[in-house]
Amino acid sequence: MAPHIVRWGIMATGWIAETFTDDLLIDPNVRDASDVAHQVVAVASSSSKERAEQFISARGITTPCSAYGDYETLVADPNVDVIYVATPHSHHYQNARLALEAGKNVLCEKAFTVNAAQTKILIEIARKKNLFLMEAVWTRYFPLSVQIRALIQKGEIGEVLRVVADTSFGDDVETKWGTTHRMVNPDLAGGALLDLGIYSLTWVFQTLYHTLPRDQRRPPTVLSQMTPYHLTGADECTTMILSFPTSTPSNGPHPQQSHGVAMTNIRVSADPDEKGSAGPTIRIQGTKGEIQVFGPPFRPESYRIIPKKGAGEIREVQCPFPGNGKGMYWEADEVARCLRDGKLESEGMPLEESIVIMEVMDEVRKQGGLAYPQKIESTEYPLQL
Ligand SMILES: NC(=O)C1=CN([C@@H]2O[C@H](COP(=O)(O)OP(=O)(O)OC[C@H]3O[C@@H](n4cnc5c(N)ncnc54)[C@H](OP(=O)(O)O)[C@@H]3O)[C@@H](O)[C@H]2O)C=CC1
Ligand SMILES: O=C1OC[C@@H](O)[C@H](O)[C@H]1O
Predict the structure, then answer these.
(1) Do residues 121 and 94 touch, judged by C-beta distance below 8 A?
(2) What's the complex ipTM?
C-alpha cells in the first residue's frame, strides 16, 4: 500500500528546526516505517526569506518547497498539512496559536508553552477547530521508551514505586550560555527546568503516570528546590520530588504512593566523562527489579533490566538510531499516523498529560520564585513580545 504522505511546514530556522528537518528527510524505510512518508513543503524564517531559502538549500531539499520571510504566510499556505513550531519557549503560545487560528495542525516543541494557562488555551482552540495538536516530546516515541513502558505494564519489574531521572549538563554556564542565549534568558523562558528538566519529568511521568489506565492517572504533589543563575535569574539547577497516589488493590497492605525524583542542572553533569562512567541517568525501581537507562534522558541509547536476586539474569538492550538519525523521525511518524487516522491527539503524549506536566512546572517555579516577565507569562493574543 502507498504510504500516507504528510506535508510539513517548518516554522523557524534554528538548531532544532534543522535537526528535525534532517530527520524528516531520512527514508522511513530505514526504520521500517513504510506506512508513512514526509515532505517538507514550506519553511519560514521570521528573520528573512533568504534565511529560509538558505535553510532549504543547505538541507538539499529538491522537491518543491516554499521559502517565506514571515510566519503568517507559512500558516496560510494551503499545501501545508502540519506546522512544526521550533521557536523559543517564550514564543510557542503565540506561534502555535497563529497556526491553529489559521486552521493548521501543529507539532510544537517542548516545553509546550511558558505556563499551563497558555497550554490550555491552545488545546481549547485545537479542539474547537478539530485540529491535531501535540507537544514534541520526541523521546516518548523512541522504541526504547515504548519498550520500557510495555515492560512496566506487563509487570516485568513488579510495581514501580520509585523513579530517579537526571538531565544535567556540566557546562561552564557563563562562558557557554552568557546572558542572552535562550538556555538562560528569562525573556525567552530559559532555564534548566523548561529546557532540560522536562525530560526528567518525562521519564517520571511516562513510567509512574502514563503506564496506568487513564482513569487511574492522578496528578502528583510536588516539593522542589531551585538555584538561580546569578547573571539572569533563570534556574540553573532544579530538583523535584513528585509523589503519585498508587492504585490500591483490595488485597492486603499496599504502598499508597510512588515517588519520582526529577533533577536538572546545567553546571554539573549527569555524565561527566560522556562515557557513561557515572552510571545510568534514569533508574526505574520496582518491587521485582529495576530498569536502568543509559545516555542523555532526551536521547537514551540503551537500557538494562536487573531482576531481583534469584529471579533471572540481567538483560542489556541496545537501541540504535537507524539511518544515523537524531531520533526525531519517530515522533514525526506518529504525527503522520495520527493525521492519517483522523486522531486529534497522540496517545503517547496526550494533551491532558501535557497540561499536568505544565502545572507541575508552574508549581515548581512558584516554589523556586521563578516568574518570567509578564509579557511572556500572559495569555493575551498576540503577546507584546
Ligand atoms: N527536541 C529537542 O531535542 C530539542 C528541542 N529544542 C526546543 O526547540 C526550541 C528552539 O530551540 P533551538 O532550535 O535550539 O533554538 P535556536 O535559538 O537555535 O532557534 C530558534 C529559532 O526561533 C526563531 N525565533 C523567532 N523569534 C525568536 C526570538 N525572539 N529569539 C530567538 N529566536 C527566535 C528563529 O528562527 P527564524 O529567525 O528563522 O524565525 C530562531 O532561529 C525550544 O523550544 C527548545 O526547547 C531545542 C533543542 C533540542
Ligand atoms: O530539548 C533539548 O534536548 C537536547 C538539548 O541539547 C537541548 O538543550 C534541549 O533543548
Answers:
(1) no
(2) 0.99
* Same domain? 304 vs 191: yes
Are 280 and 176 in the same domain?
A: yes
- Identify whether 110 is a catalytic site residue: yes
- The Cα–Cα gap between 138 and 127 comes to 22
Is 381 part of a structural domain of the chain? no
Pairing of strands 82-85, 4-11: parallel
| C-alpha distances out from residue 16 to 72, 307, 313, 381, Å | 20, 38, 40, 25
Q: CATH number of the domain that 55 lies in?
A: 3.40.50.720
Quick check: helix, strand or coil at residue 263?
strand
Identify which of 107, 109, 177 to mutate to test ligand 1's pocket (most ligand atoms within 8 A of the CB).
109
Nearest CA to ligand 1 atom 24: 87
Instruction: Tell me whether residue 221 is in a domain.
Output: yes
| Same-domain pairing of 159 and 129 | no
Which of 118, 113, 15, 36 has the alpha carbon at shortest distance from 82?
A: 36
Quick check: CB of 84 below 6 Å from ligand 2? no
CA dihedral 123, 127, 128, 130 (to 10 degrees): 130
Q: Which of 22, 46, 112 to mutate to test the pocket of ligand 1 (most atoms within 8 A of CB)?
A: 46
User: Does 151 share its domain with 132?
Assistant: no
Domain match, 114 and 172 both: no
Minimum CA distance residue for ligand 1 atom 6: 16
Among all ligands shown, which has an atom nearest to the Cα of 169?
2
Same domain flag for 49 and 161: no
| Residue 341 within a domain | yes
Per-residue pLDDT of the chain (385 residues; tens, 9 = 90+): 899 999 999 999 999 999 999 999 999 999 999 999 999 999 999 999 999 999 999 999 999 999 999 999 999 999 999 999 999 999 999 999 999 999 999 999 999 999 999 999 999 999 999 999 999 999 999 999 999 999 999 999 999 999 999 999 999 999 999 999 999 999 999 999 999 999 999 999 999 999 999 999 999 999 999 999 999 999 999 999 999 998 766 566 677 899 999 999 999 999 999 999 999 999 999 999 999 999 999 999 999 999 999 999 999 999 999 999 999 999 999 999 999 999 999 999 999 999 999 999 999 999 999 999 999 999 999 999 9
Q: Output the pTM of the full model.
A: 0.98
